[in-house]
Amino acid sequence: MSSDGRRRISLGDFRHEALSETSSTNSECLARARAGDGGNLWVTAERQTGGRGRRGRLWVSERGNLYASLLLIDPAPMERLGSLPLAIAVAVHQAIRRVLPLGAEPLEVKWPNDILIGRKKTCGILVEGEGLPDGRYALIVGIGINISVMPDNPLYPVTCLRQQGSAASPEELFAHLFAATAEVLEIWDQGHGISEITALWRGIACGIGEKITVNLPDRSISGQFAGIDDNGLLMLDTGAGRIMPIAAGDVFFG
After folding, report:
1. Beta strand extents in 59-149 (DSSP E only)
2. Which of 5, 109, 113, 2 has its CA nearest to residue 54?
């Protein structure tokens, strides 16, 4: 318990259920939440038959990669949930760092939470939420990490841990992810630790100061990536001294 009465999270607060196959680990977590699960539950699967990414995109989910989702119940007040994806990205970066050899290409985070190795995507994170009938709020963090399998026709350049010289198994990588997420969520502290999280995120960010294009649902905007603000919004310098904050979008470099 912290000095202001908030309960501190710890590694022992989390549970893990490993499945051979499921449609989607995110969907499995949501079903558990609707059935009354108390949260802090990890669900992993060796294979997903209906994995999905942002905006409903298909997420290739063959055996050999890590597919994991974390169910959190009421992790923070709604106004502080916006920084959670940054915290998760920091945790995933830490977990992958622990299994990469020293000679691997640079490991970075692309806003808000794609993990890149040598500017090639190796991990996607999908955060979904739903209000439950009993008044609780379920938040699910889905994480797919390319270990030995990659999509055939990606939107972005992609890589996998095997290409980077890592021999880690999905089980070994998940053990690191399990521990790193508990550590980072303790720092995040229900959103109260956002300043420390944003500092950690900036230290591993990809492309700050570079020209980027952000694809929004209705248009594309180009400018210089000026970093993130203290709430995790992307700050796009569109020229003439104008900084545009962006809450969600797909970022492309160059």
Report:
1. 66-73, 107-110, 114-117, 120-131, 137-145
2. 113
Question: What does the CA dihedral 219, 223, 226, 230 come to, rounded to 10 degrees?
Answer: -20
Cα gap 130→184, rounded to integer Å = 23
Residues 43, 101 within the same domain = yes
Provide the residue range defining the domain that includes 224.
Answer: 208-251
**Model confidence over 20-33: pLDDT tens digits?**
999 899 999 999 99
74-115 pLDDT, tens digit each? 999 999 998 899 999 999 999 999 999 998 899 999 998 899
State how far the Cα of 65 lies from the Cα of 139, in Å rounded to an integer.
23
46: tokens are 């060796």
Q: Write the CATH number for 239.
A: 2.30.30.100
Q: What total number of domains does the chain contain?
A: 2
